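Sequence and structure are no longer studied apart. As an example, we show below a sequence and the tokens encoding its fold:
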Amino acid sequence: MMLDATKGEVQRSLLEKELESVGIRLNKHKPNIYFKPKKGGGISFNSTVTLTQCSEKLVQLILHEYKIFNAEVLFREDCSPDEFIDVIVGNRVYMPCLYVYNKIDQISMEEVDRLARKPNSVVISCGMKLNLDYLLEMLWEYLALTCIYTKKRGQRPDFTDAIILRRGASVEHVCHRIHRSLASQFKYALVWGTSTKYSPQRVGLTHTMEHEDVIQIVKK
């Protein structure tokens, strides 16, 4: 989320409220609550932890507001009433968010320091090209991306044209990215990098690649 550092917290607060209103939850995880509507039997309520924000009576009142009179509810963590409502509605989206404060060259050093110390935040200046390298590192981290290099037999790896995949991608994902028919012609692959015990290591389609690995694919 790109923000104007000169506007303080006003802009961020407005954008967060807009996203909250349409069911998007930033930097939050899905509440660990088991909820299952039933056809009969009333409301069965249990918890595996001590609840400080919800009670059985409050849970029943919330369910009745949503015209639910038969259900199983199990709290596995101490959640708020709003989080329980999110579970009932069931269409909330939980996603990570990186707050990027631009124009830090127009505010005081004290304010820059305060913003930089906030969780999930990066301070930059596009105009003066300040801290852009760190922003790029954080984007890779938040997007969970990994960079894979390819190598042809008898040649050096091509470090100028990387394949960008999600973290946890396998050799099969690399094959599909190169060409959709390559996986069906796959025999084995040689991999150099941190994902192997030794370099090169002969691997199959299910081998998980890691950042900046080098791969050479051998066809049948």
